[in-house]
Amino acid sequence: MSGVSSSPPQIPGDEFTEVYYGALTAPLASPNPHLLVTNGSHSYFWRFGSHSWLRACPCDGTVKQIVTFKGQVFGMDSGGMLFVMHLVPRIRVRMMGVSWGEISTRHLANLYLVACGDMLLLVGCRGSFPARGDSFEAFRLDQSTEHAKWVRVEELQNWAIFISTDKRSQPLSFMNPERWGGRSNCVYYYSHDSEHWAAFELGKPASSRNSFVFISSSNVVQPTWVVPSMFSQCGDG
């Protein structure tokens, strides 16, 4: 933890304004951290330590998620549109036209952006809600050609991905999960509605009872995904 704290000014709006999503673009100890919030109709940026919020188009609307990947801040809106945020010398949001080629995403629900090693992934569930018989699919962003495109990923190799329906939890990836008894090439999914979390091997349906690794009860503290270094002051614990 950095030990640094600061309070942003009042978010533009009235007493009925509700914040739908909020996230830091970088750790507070970084050179230029910003807080992004959206109230369902507009998105605002607050630079740490400044005295006002800035509104940046064209990401007005419901921002679903932001991810920092290779020094860039990527975001996705509720419609699955991808955009890149530039924070210096001024805030600028650029929508990205990404081709799907012959891949159809109409059958995918609950889309998530995940930074996984050297890949920026879009992960979705084949089915309306992750359950037995459903499966997860992943696509990596390929920017090697003039027009960016999503390319299907067949395996996560020695990576595992952690996703939660709780909007407060950012999707995470973890290398070599066997070190703590986990499984590679799996998507660990937690539903805060059903209070279940399950392991889905990428591309394969969760058909076994062993896939459901935790069933909560109302008197159990709700789990959330964390990275161990979050609890290390030096970042190397």
In the sheet with the most strands, the strands line up as 14-13-15-16-17
Reading the helices and strands in chain order gives: EEEEEEEEEEEEEEEEE
Net shape: globular
Q: Mean pLDDT score, rounded?
A: 78
Rg for CA atoms: 19 Å
Low-confidence stretches: 212-223, 228-237
Give the proportion of residues in helices: under 10%
The largest sheet is: 5 strands, mixed
Count of strand segments: 17
Find the structural class using helix and strand composition: mainly beta
- C-alpha termini separation: 12 Å
Tally of individual helices: 0
Give a verbal description of the structure.
This is KIB1-4 beta-propeller domain-containing protein. InterPro entries: KIB1-4_b-propeller (IPR005174). The protein is 0% helix and 40% strand. The strands form four sheets. A five-stranded mixed beta sheet has the order 14-13-15-16-17, with no helix packed on it. It has a four-stranded antiparallel beta sheet with strand order 1-2-3-4, with no helix packed on it. The radius of gyration is 19 Å and the shape is globular. The chain is mostly beta strands and 237 residues long. It has a domain of 96 residues. 20% of the residues are buried. β11 and β12 form a beta hairpin.
